[in-house]
């Protein structure tokens, strides 16, 4: 059970919020996170199940898209205060991959970084350009001095230790040197990888592919991350993955990851 003196911030690639709504509601009911960053909504903003989420005790800031992508920030008991919709740096980029809000005195950036497959190719190029824009925006957030969390599906396996078998995914965009280097650049700016901080010696997997029995074999990857600014990192008390959610009927191929900070 969550300590009421702590603020729990979670990230969850829901992989279709309307399809997975029973899973989402069950998880919210049991764990009661204070802030939730959702990715891959796969619905427009108006199609998002606002009332069902409100019945669960949450207000939502949603940036949807007709078929793919889509991000949302949920806050328990109070509406997120919108800061921005969309990642700065390219006004022509209309993909719904970033939303930012203030919740309980913390700046929350919810992101769904491009997958980049197949690579090489235009999708991989877009991934790298998007990552550069994220680096620039993240640097500005750090400069502000505010407590900030950048939470979401980064579609990057940071190191070979963060995957059950690097050999099986060696050609996948998630493991390529360029996005890995970009992720390390983020950390060098001063961000703390909450899950790595909590589990430095054994990775906490957050994703198990639907194919080839990845879930039963615990053949997972760590691609969902919560990065904390220095001011917020000093308040970190715990972090983890609600792994059991991945085993529910009709589950997403991701499990929710979370960090608790002193409120």
TrEMBL record:
- Residues that, per the record, bind Mg(2+): 13, 40, 153, 155, 253-254
Could you mention a single GO BP entry for this protein?
DNA repair
What are the site positions for Transition state stabilizer? 155
The organism's superkingdom is given as Bacteria
Domain (Endonuclease/exonuclease/phosphatase) ranges = 10-254
Check the record and name the Pfam families matching this protein.
Answer: Exo_endo_phos (PF03372)
Cofactor(s) this protein cannot do without: Mg(2+); Mn(2+)
Q: Where is this site: Important for catalytic activity?
A: 224
Similarity annotation: Belongs to the DNA repair enzymes AP/ExoA family.
The protein, known as: Exodeoxyribonuclease III
The scientific name of the source species is Rhodoferax koreensis
